[in-house]
Design brief:
350 residues; TIM Barrel; 3-stranded parallel beta sheet; 15 helices
Length: 350
């Protein structure tokens, strides 16, 4: 087995400026995981059930404070219509996340999940660790009890949102009211122990250093050694438009080279996570296509609906046909998948 790369070695590789070497190293590791040349994607929809949030993160343009005139909570009827539209387009799951609502208790989330499962045969990929921690606080419950109740109500898997950078210096700066790095990791540790598979994310390109990005990856790697519960890692750059960070002068927009180097290092460092996802939603089709040569093997979601990145002024859009085209044009085989990365039958008209 090859020696595992350290944070220090990874930082030296990043600073070397050798983009092609990083791409070659990451590509070799991707081929070890995915020798067949398949690049996957999922047909699903992001449903944000509310934009009302007490966290007030400096990087977020989506949230609204409680009592804001443009704050909203979706009704179950509205959510149902979104699910119906998703299924008509052969979508297999919904990714459901929202703001940290000040008054919703665990019973409200349980009721929502039960109604969805009663009305629809669809995979529910929902509730990031900050949401779980918030539910636990509001409902005076332990995180494990919250997760058990959600699983019993119909939760199938969890997204890795709210990770940002898993270094508390950074979190105290950009999201001081959100869960700590250790709390985020503990939610995931508990979810994995209870049989819930999750993804992990990293939002970078704001106040963090390159070393802190790599420390973040190392913490994810260590937890994966312990639990094996992460199915994929999704690094995506901070989008500064309309955010408090931008208004305060933090607007160092990440370029494609920085993105590709960071993506490649995630593939190199995370030697125990099988899938790395490209972020076409923030980078656009061409850079996402390049990401396939820098370690990525998954194009993520068709994004039948996306609100959070769009609120920051970024509006890249691609149809399923376009996603399949850029995968095929790069010399790979496009395949639909489920959340667990098992493959689905090919569409009748590919």
């Amino acid at each position: 087995m090859a020696e595992r790369i350290s944070v220090e070695k990874a930082e030296a590789l990043f600073e070397s400026g050798d983009l092609l070497k990083l791409g070659e190293m990451a590509g070799d590791i991707r081929r070890k995981f995915h020798a067949e040349g398949i690049v996957t994607y999922i047909v699903d929809r992001n449903i944000n059930y509310t934009n009302i949030c007490v966290s007030g993160c400096r990087f977020c343009a989506f949230y609204r404070k409680p009592g804001a005139d443009d704050g909203w909570v979706l009704t179950f009827e509205e959510i149902s219509e979104k699910i119906k539209e998703t299924q008509k387009l052969e979508g297999v799951q919904i990714l459901m996340q929202g703001g940290l609502h000040p008054t919703w208790r665990i019973e409200d989330y349980e009721e929502l999940l039960r109604k969805i499962k009663k009305g629809f045969d669809i995979h529910i990929h929902a509730f990031s660790p900050p949401e779980i921690c918030h539910m636990a606080r509001v409902s005076s419950l332990a995180v494990e009890d919250v997760l058990k109740k959600l699983i019993d109500a119909g939760l199938d898997s969890m997204p890795g949102g709210g990770a940002e950078i898993l270094v508390d210096r950074v979190r105290n700066d950009i999201s001081p009211k959100k869960c700590t790095a250790d709390e985020w990791l503990d939610v995931m540790r508990t979810a994995h122990r209870l049989g819930i598979k999750t993804t992990a994310t990293m939002m970078f390109g704001h106040v963090e250093t390159v070393r802190e990005r790599l420390i973040h990856m190392d913490k994810i790697r260590r937890l994966q050694d312990e639990t094996g519960g992460f199915t994929a890692f999704i690094p995506w750059p901070f989008q500064e438009g309309n955010t408090l960070l931008a208004k305060q002068g933090i607007n160092k927009k990440i370029g494609s080279v920085d993105y590709l180097k960071t993506l490649a290092l995630s593939r190199i460092m995370l030697d125990n996570i099988p899938n790395i996802q490209a972020s076409w939603v923030t980078q656009g089709a061409k850079v996402a296509q390049m990401a396939l040569f820098f370690g990525a093997n998954d194009m993520g979601s068709t994004m039948l609906e996306e609100n959070v990145v769009k609120a920051a002024g970024v509006s890249f859009e691609m149809t399923e046909k376009e996603i399949r085209h850029i995968i095929g044009d790069a010399g790979f085989i496009p395949r639909r998948r489920r959340q667990d990365y098992s493959l689905l039958p090919e569409p009748a008209v590919a």
